[in-house]
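Fold description:
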Amino acid sequence: MRGGSKSETITENIFREFYGNGAFIEKSAIPSHYGFKSKKGTGYKGYPDFFRDNANEDFVIIVEAKADDYKAACEEVEFYAKVNKIDKDILAIAISGQTIGTYKSSLFIKFNGGKYKEIDTNWKLLPLESLRKIYRKEKIGDCISDEKLHTILSELNNTFHEPMKIKDTERSLFFAGLMIALKDTNFRITYKNIQAPTKEQQDTSKYKLIESHNLNKAIIEAIVNQINNRINSYSKEINWKGQFAFILDIDYELKPYKELISKIEKNIFTPFEFDEKQDILGKAYKIFLSRAGKIDNKNIILTPDHIKHLMVRLARLSVDDIVLDTCTGTGGFLMEAMEVMSKLAKGNDELIERIHRHQLYGFEIDRTLFALACSNMFLHGDGRSNMIFGNSLIEVGSKIYSEFKRTYKPRKCIINPPYEKNLPIQFVYKALELLEPNGKLIIVMPSITLNKNVGSGTEDVLKMARLDFVIKLPLSTFREQGRTVYTSIFGFTKDSGGHRKDDRVLFYDLVDDGLVSVQHKGRVDKYKRWNAIEDAIYDVINSSKEIYDVCEKRLIYNGDTLVPYGFVEHKGQMNYYPISTLFTIQTGELQSEDGEEDGEYDFITASEKWKKHNMYQMEGEAIIYANNSEGSLGRCHYVNGKFMASTLCLILQERNHIQFPLDLEYYSFYFMSIRKQITSRLKDGTSKLSISQDKFKNYLIEYIPIQEQRKRKEIIKQRKRDLEELKRQEKTLEETLYDL
């Protein structure tokens, strides 16, 4: 500021830079029909400095800026908020000051016909999204909580079941249909006055009309009116009227039927209108099907909200990204992406419209899920216009597939594929095919997927992309959906050079996500721990840094051998070999419960304590490794003599005494030292977790020279003796503690 002079233009520029281009129009562009008058009281036209009126918002924003007269800015914006011809609610912003660090701003609100009042903003400008939240909270109160939503959806599910008798597979679509119908202004105004069929209707109909006939018909007409003309040319033909035709057969008394719709409007639809971020239809789908015992049959695992949010964040979206989900489900990832990208647009309506209509794409083959995803995206701001009804795995070569790949050039893909029939590896490959060079794929799938497909798909994936990180999720992540399977989030970058042998992968072990199981509510963030956990994960992945016992960088190639679970190379020469190179491996012969108390020989099971048996299977030195008992996976026993082993265990013996001499007692200690590492990487299963012999025998371990083995063994044995002595002394002290 030359000579210390202050300029209103500087204040206006602070405002412009904060909100970006396109969020507000300038004084000179404000149309006269808004009825603003000169603040001088002359009766002539006058205008505030900035103005915003978005067709999708129930409020306008009026802004007045002053160089340094804060009081004048407040008085003048209040004048413009009160003297106008605007029939919407009004937010008013006053701002003054000359620097980013010292400006002062206030926010005011005036509901149509109501009082004018100030809202505390700590004297600072707020992003448009924050202004929308404040408006919604002042207008209708807090948005619906997850807990309340879960309760209401559960109550609706009971009503849909009895007395409405809606099939469990149609309940989520019925709920979606009602939410869409309530978007229709005419239906929302008239449904409470709809009556049963008249005598004339009954007389002219070939069939007896049910009491709810007219209401059912109005619901379908409202749905079709809202959604039918918004389907894109890339979807296979969907008859939306036919998709919801089952509603015509809902035979329910009119009075409670209208009360049910009113309950949905008041408790879900209206709060949702002001907070469209929740995947309400996804939650409804999960509750309706899980209560009916059907979700397991469809092999659909819906991504928990906190994992969905993390995965979208890990994709590091930009406002220009084209985002793809090749197995869309109910549309949760696309809705989350839409929310993130819309925020990045900073209120630029043109940019937000482009994101909704041209930057979000999804494939879905299940007809019900496709309808739910379209409905969900429609309810979330019409971003569903690019849903493709088709199978992304088999559409290769089709017109849809080739045109999509050529025209839209997706840069980010975020998916949770079906887990059965080894489909995840196929979805990885096809998603990478569709992505542009340097595109990112974020996928959650069984942790064992890449390891399981060595020799049958993993190599092809790694020729096309670099594996950047693997985040192992807690076993409880999908447990509330009846799934016991270890899953991980994998991050890939499409690279023409593929994954190079010296590329290191960051492996993160998320032992606890902070959520706890609460009866009738599922897994919830009761103690508000997740946000900090998510920030820590994002920071580590983004900076690619290691944290002891949490995450580490590993190679996944040992020479030419692919090892997808990775290993940490040691300084100097690497001496890693598959277990089967060092050991012979066979399984035990008897069931664990077949022990004999008076037996002569040791019977070794997965348990810590040994049993006895009258027969022996083998004689000599061996390591007994528990691989098929979920609670004891990785437990090792060293045995030397005649023994019997359980079918829950593997028997390891020295394979090549000349090339790889082994001290088996030492290697029993070695296996116990890497127990957590092996089990976390290799255990797999649904109803029961185990380590397959094939995976175990190919697992890489160090070969340590025999003299070093013996030296280490003696150190460990001495430590064990020292520990026993400490325990003995502790026991003696406890026994004499109170002796006087």
Observations:
- Residues 2-140 form one domain.
- The CA atoms of residues 466 and 499 lie 4 Å apart.
- The radius of gyration is 33 Å.
- Residues 292-298 have pLDDT under 50 and may be disordered.
